[in-house]
Amino acid sequence: MGITVQNITGTTAMVIWPKMASCADSFYSVMYHPNWNSMLSSYSRKSFQKEERVPTSRSSFIVENLTPLTTYIVCVTCQSANPSSDQCRVFNTLEQDPASASNTKKELALGIWLTSSVLLLIIAAILLYGCLHLLCRRRRERLQGRNGTSEQDHGKAWTKSTVHNSEELGRQSQLMQDIEEKHPGGIQLATIIENPSACKDPVMPTSKSWERVPTIGQCSAVN
Fold first, then answer.
1. 188-218, pLDDT tens digit by residue?
2. Which class is domain 4-93?
3. Is 97 within 8 Å of 9 (Cβ atoms)?
4. pTM
5. What is the pLDDT of residues 52-66, one digit of tens each?
6. Do residues 17 and 1 touch, judged by C-beta distance below 8 A?
7. Kind of pairing between the strands at 27-34 and 13-16
């Protein structure tokens, strides 16, 4: 069939074959497999690792993703037929190209860098969310504490004012009782002074408070 293999590298090879009239309006099958010496002599299609279909308008195909320093067998048939020995060729791949190895290393490093960057961004976002959540919770607790303190202060002030008023009323009540006990007529005198109309009806004071109670004329003078 006149199959040739050209432009062999560590990972690729170009397979070239002459056009076949019997494959008009159909396709070519390009089959390849490593370690060709382990294959059976029948060259069955099931023994090949890869198979590619190529339109009949083409007479060449680039085999890719090969392993460097490996022996391969490649066969070209018409319409997925089982190949024969004259439809196959054996070739050896070369060492990996330094430029390809460098590109592979660069791609690997770029992939690692992108993965690390994404992980760092995720970790930073989680930490930022945690910090903001903690700050909001502390602020809310601080505000609740201030409100509770204000309510306690208000309650203490109200209680203190109530106690103070109660004590003041108690003192005034005790003072009035003391005055009544010491001067029984003093209350009537205070009533007369505060209410001048009470002077119209003279009040007869007791003997003890006679000198202190004003007469009717004195009451009119007060009026």
1. 544 444 555 544 455 454 444 444 444 444 4
2. mainly beta
3. yes
4. 0.44
5. 999 988 899 999 989
6. yes
7. unpaired
pLDDT at residue 12, rounded to an integer: 92
Contacts of 64 (CB under 8 A, 6+ apart): 11, 12
Written in H, E and C, the secondary structure of the chain is CCCEEECCCCCCEEEECCCCHHHCCCEEEEEEEECHHHCCCCCCHHHCCEEEEEECCCCEEEECCCCCCCEEEEEEEECCCCCCHHHEEEEECCCCCHHHHHHHHHHHHHHHHHHHHHHHHHHHHHHHHHHHHHHHHHHHHHHHHHHHHHHHHHHHHHHHHHHHHHHHHHHHHHHHHHHHHHCCCHHHHHHHHHCHHHHHCCCCCCCCCCCCCCCHHHHHHHC
Residues listed for the chain: 223
